[in-house]
Structures are given as structure tokens and as C-alpha cells.
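Following up on my earlier message about zinc ion. Here are the inputs again, as you asked, copied directly from the submission form:
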Amino acid sequence: MNKYLYKLYCFMQGRNGIDDLYKFCFIIFIIISIIDLFINSFILNIIEILLLIIMFYRFLSKDLVNRKRENNFYLKYRKIIINRIGILNKRWKDRNSYIYRKCPKCKNILRLPLKKGNHMCKCPKCGNRFKVRCFRNEKIRVEVIKNK
Ligand SMILES: [Zn+2]
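Thanks, got it. Here's what our run produced:
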């Protein structure tokens, strides 16, 4: 092994290094730097410097327990946000065949068929019955399945 690489290897022993939170900070740093090229704002400069300090501190830190806890906290919220985006995406794709309503008792989101009028709905989770009003019918998209 190269002498300098070995020294670097020894230096990095027991340090946090690169994790998911570091990568996220790095992406944010790049985005802010690009925006700053066009706007040239003092506040963005301060945010960039703070991000760099946080990134270097976390990269070189030997307090692995706390760094791991911060990273897990970040991963937890990232997962929640990705799930929310997935639900919004599904709602948008289903907009012509289903409506989404929140159960007033247990707050779960239910997917109901689009059918114009007032309906009674029973939540499958808690059994609560509540009224749902729907203003439009299902829109069926005609698709060609055999092309001549
Ligand atoms: Zn419910």
C-alpha cells in the first residue's frame, strides 16, 4: 500500500466518514452553491459555510454513537417523506377512479370508488361509519388493446 494512503487509512480509523446524512448535506451544498452563483446572496454564503462545517465535523468525528443516531434520525424522516410522495403519486394516478377520504375516528386514509351522491362508508380498520359525499362519477378511459 502507498505510504500516504496508509497514513490516511490510519487517520480515518475510528472516524465517522461518509454516511447518508453526509451525502444529503453534500447534495444540498451543491444545489445551494449553484443557486448562489446566480443570486450571490450573503445568507446563502453563510448556509454554505455552515453546511461545510457540519459535513467536516461529522466526517472526522470519533463520536460514532451520536453520529449514528443523527443518521438514523435523518433516515427515518427521509422514509416518511418518500412514503408521503408515493401516496400523493398514487392519488394523482387514481384521480379518475377513486376518491381518498380520512376516517374521522382513526385518521386512516381510505380509498373509495368514485360514485356520485351521498354514501355511508364503513372504515375497515376501526368499524366507524361516516358519510361521504362524492360529486362525480368514475371516468372510464377507453383504451385500444388490439391495433389493426
Ligand atoms: Zn377508522
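One observation from looking it over: The beta strands are 98-102, 109-113, 117-122, 129-134. Hope that helps, and feel free to reply on this thread.
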